Design the sequence.
């Protein structure tokens, strides 16, 4: 199943076909049931006392590590306004995807 995932506790995506999830738990459950998304748009702050978007980014990396479940053309964007965790999500995923791509070409 090819789909885009939008993780945010309040906002709605521009892409009206994106699957909206409001928590890390809902995102993980959706991916486990439907397979890896082709694209994820991340918010970080998902409500007081809730797990954060960066935790889902780390989970996706773990999900992909051994079995290469993310599609080769996987992309992501960060729409979080959090000036610390937004860049953290971006940097973490960019580093992982760069390393992963070099593994594909070796």
Sequence:
């Amino acid at each position: 199943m090819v789909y885009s995932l939008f993780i945010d506790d309040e906002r709605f995506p521009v892409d009206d076909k994106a699957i909206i999830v409001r928590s890390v738990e809902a995102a993980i459950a959706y991916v486990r049931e439907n397979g890896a998304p082709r694209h994820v748009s991340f918010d970080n702050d998902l409500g007081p006392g809730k797990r954060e978007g960066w935790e889902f980014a780390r989970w996706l990396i773990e999900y992909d590590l051994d079995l290469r479940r993310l599609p080769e053309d996987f992309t992501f964007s960060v729409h979080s306004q959090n000036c610390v965790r937004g860049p953290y999500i971006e940097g973490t995923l960019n580093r992982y995807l760069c390393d992963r791509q070099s593994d594909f070409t070796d």
